[in-house]
Please model this.
Amino acid sequence: MSARRGSSPACHRGVALIFVGEAGENMIGVAPGANDHLTPDDIDHLSESLFAPGALFLASLEVPVATVVRGLQRARARGMITVLNPAPIDPAILDPEVLALFDVLTPNLEEARALSGITRGGRGVTEAIDAASRLRARGVGRLVITLGPEGCLVATDEGYSLVPAPSVDAVDTVGAGDAFNGALAVALAEGRPLIEAAAWACAAGALAVTRAGAQGASPRREEIDRLTADALIKQ
Model:
């Protein structure tokens, strides 16, 4: 295979080693490999057609922050909705110039704790609200903090809303965050309000944990719609 812009022929691909406990919780060790070699220059060489006005740009921190920032800058300049999943966390995203580039931040509770400076342990909605309050004081506009089986906390200028997740039997939590963020992005791109989009994303994440693996566990749209409808009926 011939080398192309953005490729690193002398470097291995990114690899994630995943351990899953009996309750389905996971621990992931990552060797970034070629991910670390994606540069802002690579983003500059992407076609303008990839940055469509009114569409959505979703980024994570699995490539260098400077590269993510350049992608967000191009997306913002074209009038795209921008969503940042701060995983793995990097405090550099709290720089005021970076904060101005994304519309929604989607950390899990552990990431929200680390970014907000909370040092004590613990889980739950109360701590998520504390973290959200601190992050909003730092200049973060809208947040969706994922809380595993408890759902997610949506924090905006209008206040805080707990969005519950459908109750399921967890087999493997690997890929749940990816499913959540992907579904949230789709719903926001379709023009749904943030809380409605978060509820749809919770259903996607819930479905993902009922299956082993990552990519293969991602649910299809009709499955998410069905689980969302079932959850509404049970409320």
In short: The CA atoms of residues 25 and 173 lie 6 Å apart. Confidence is low (pLDDT under 50) at residues 1-6.
